[in-house]
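Readers of this paper often ask what the protein records in our data store actually look like. The remainder of this section carries one protein's record, kept here as part of the documentation.

:::
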Amino acid sequence: MSTERMPNPAMLIPGAMEALMDVNKAIAATGLDGKLLALTHLRASQINGCGPCVAGGAGQARRNGASAEQVDTVAAWRETPWFNDSERAALALTEAVTRLADNADPVPDQVWDMAAKHFDHKELAALLLNIAITNTFNRINAPTRQQAGKW
């Protein structure tokens, strides 16, 4: 197991963690389904290899009503029957936004259109902000090797 390289950077800069948490509060205040937010957080964190966020996202998903099958198979959501169409659209958008540099067309129209079919602009805004803040946390935690369970 690798060891932490430094304390969490957001904890070292006064006000940084509070600002990040305020974004999370704003996202939650939109009313977008907490299970959906947790599943997208979990999926982005899996892609980015962020141990603390994977652990946190799995727990958050369970607390918000995700089934054990959903938590266990979110990385293989395309090949399982446990996700509805709106969850699939959100997970596809999550993967595209998290992997922006991997494709010439980072968020293809097909992915965007499917998400827009299931979510209005406010919900899409909340979903995109959730993906972005998750990626922010992942990009703070992974390079500094923050450890799951060490809060």
About this structure: The mean pLDDT is 95. The chain is about 65% helix and 0% strand. The chain has one domain: 15-138. The domain at 15-138 is CATH 1.20.1290.10 (AhpD-like).
